[in-house]
Structure formats: structure tokens, C-alpha cells
Write a structure and sequence with these properties.
The chain is of the alpha/beta class and 264 residues long. It folds into two domains: 9-190 and 231-249, NAD(P)-binding Rossmann-like Domain (Rossmann fold), CATH 3.40.50; 193-228, no CATH class. The chain contains eight helices and seven strands, in the order E-H-E-H-E-H-E-H-E-H-E-H-H-H-E. Strands 3-2-1-4-5-6-7 form a seven-stranded parallel sheet, sandwiched between helices. Helix 4 (100-125) links the parallel strand 4 and strand 5. The model has no long low-confidence stretch (mean pLDDT 96). The chain binds nicotinamide-adenine-dinucleotide. The site of nicotinamide-adenine-dinucleotide has 29 residues, from helix 1 and helix 6.
Amino acid sequence: MSGRLDGRTVLITGAASGIGAACARRLDAEGARLLLADVNGPGAEKLAAELGQHAIAADVTRAADIERMVDAAYARWGRLDVLFNNAGVIQTKPLLDVTEADWDRIMTVNLRAVFFVLQAVARQMVKQDPIPGSELRGKLIQTASIAAYRGGQALLGPYSASKAGVVSVTRTAASVLAPHRVTSNALCPGVVETPMWEQIDAEWTALEGWARGEAWKRRIAGIPLGRPERAEDLTGTVVFLASADSDYMTGQAINVDGGLVMGG
Ligand SMILES: NC(=O)c1ccc[n+]([C@@H]2O[C@H](COP(=O)([O-])OP(=O)(O)OC[C@H]3O[C@@H](n4cnc5c(N)ncnc54)[C@H](O)[C@@H]3O)[C@@H](O)[C@H]2O)c1
């Protein structure tokens, strides 16, 4: 077999659904060895069984679960080449109605957990040998969002702030870890047809009194490339970020969004 990621070891969080699951399938096809982590343990197990890979039930908001998850990767392979730090949650709610509990829940999963998963993995990566055939010791990939940049996300205040934070953490890690030959980049998807968007549509249409599906229809109407994004549209970029082809890139946030965000 000759794939672009032959033998590379990859930990994916939020692997049971949507973008994480689509990337798991593609990375598997490219020859990577995978540990699929998700708070939905049975979902991760099911996909791992289908692919002949490994799974672990882990809630990334819990320090003990992060430790168990990272230890499992190192116990299995003795190293981890790539982290795909992807788990996330959303809530659609008007700014004036957001509670402290709402804020804390979004931030705890989308930013706090992303930070501490990155930290736990980076602590190990800086001590390991370079990836075979590479000058790098490891590669960190965070899932942010175009919501990190776009203003006017009236119903996504905490979520957008969390994703701006993910870009910030990605860049801090990139500069701190560059001397250790560990890179850190972020993926910014656009409007992707996953269970997360089913939730957004349900919450948003309920707020507006619209028929189900109307929020989705309005949101995808302005996409320059003329169709909604599928989770599969992100897999090529994640393969690129996990592969040697991106070895000289660090601290970047890449929009893969059908052209929704353009310009600097
Ligand atoms: N769908 C979109 O339009 C879109 C756009 C931009 C960014 N994103 C981001 O992409 C990532 C994946 O989203 P998706 O659309 O595939 O959503 P999804 O809901 O299909 O998948 C998210 C996965 O994360 C898991 N998860 C949630 N909380 C967790 C926790 N505490 N510990 C471990 N796993 C947890 C869920 O169980 C689920 O399997 C998220 O970070 C999301 O914010 C999505």
C-alpha cells in the first residue's frame, strides 16, 4: 500500500461524527494508524471496528480522560505523529440571552479542552524522535472555524469567541513549539452538512419561527462555490496538514469554506 500517510500515527478527537469521522475514513485510506477518541464511545468504537483501527471513549473536558487518551496512543505506538484536535460543540442563542452556564459549556469544550489536549500531546511530542523521514517531531491540527473571523455572527457569540481562541492557541503553540520541530496549524471550515448544522438549524428556526431547514437554506445561499460544504471537502486539507507536504507551514489558519471568507 502506498498512501500519503503510510504508518503515521494520528489521534483524532470528535472522531465519531461529521468532520472527524470523514477525516478518519480518509486518513485510514491514506495508510495512517488511528486512535479515534470521542465522548460518544460506541460511535467511535463502531467506526474503528469498520476501519480496523482503534478507539477510546474520552471526554476531552476531563483532565483524567485527556491523560488516558494520550497515554493510550503512546502505549500503543510509543509515539504520536499527528494530533487532529477537532471535538467541538455549538449553541445558537441571541447575545442578550446567553447565560454564564452557556458560555462556560462552549468555552470548556471548544477552547479549554483544545488547549489542554494540545498541551498534553505537545509535552510528549517534544521528547520524541522525529517522524521517520521528516525533520519534524510532530504536527498539531486544530479545528477552528470561519466563525473565528466573521463579524455579525449574532447567534454564535460564545462559539465565535471560542474559535477565535482556537486560532490564537494554534499560533502561540506554533511559535513556542517551532524550536522543538513541532508544527501547529488550524483548519477553518465554513458551513458543513454535519449533525452540528442540524442542531444549528433546529435552534435557529425555533428562534425565528421559521420552518425547519430555512436557516440552513438561507445560510448556504451566499456560498460563492454554489453548494454547501460536505465533511469530505475538508479531508484533503487535513491529509495535507498531516503529511510531509505541509512541513514548512506553521501558525496558519486555513479557510476551507467554498469562498465564504475572502481577503485579509
Ligand atoms: N459543521 C460546521 O459547519 C462546522 C463549521 C466550522 C467548524 N466546525 C467545527 O468542526 C468540528 C467538528 O464538528 P462537526 O460539524 O463534525 O460536528 P459533529 O457534532 O458532527 O461532531 C462533533 C463530535 O465531537 C464530539 N464531542 C463533543 N464534545 C466532546 C467532548 N467533550 N469530548 C470528546 N468528544 C466530544 C461529539 O460527540 C461528536 O462526535 C467542531 O470543532 C466544530 O466546531 C464545524
